[in-house]
Please model this.
Amino acid sequence: MGLLYLIALLVSLGCMLLIDRRFRLFFWHDAFAATIVTVTGTLFFLLWDIAGIASGIFLRGDSGFASGIVLAPQLPLEEPVFLIFLVVCTMIVYTGAVRLIRARRSGRPAPGPRERTR
Model:
C-alpha cells in the first residue's frame, strides 16, 4: 500500500501521454520542445518546493499511500513525479485548448489525431 500514490501518479502520467499520442498535442507534436518545457517547468517547481521547504512552509505529511522514500529532507520521491505530471498535464490541456479555439475561430472542425496543425 506504500507505493499506491506513486503508482497512481505513473498511471495518470501514462494516460496523459496516451492522450498526447492520440491527438499529437505535446510530445508527439514536437518532442524536443516538449522535453525542454517539461524539464524547465519541473525544475522551476522543484526549486519552488525547495524554497518552501527551506523556509518551513512545505512539510512532508505522513501517509500510508506514499512510498516513504525521501530524496531530501521533506522532499518525498513522489514530488518530482507529481511535478512532471503537473507540467505534462498542463501542457496537454493548453495545447488542446489552443487547437480547439483556433478551429472554432476558423469555422472548421477541430483537426483529428492524424491531421497537422499550423
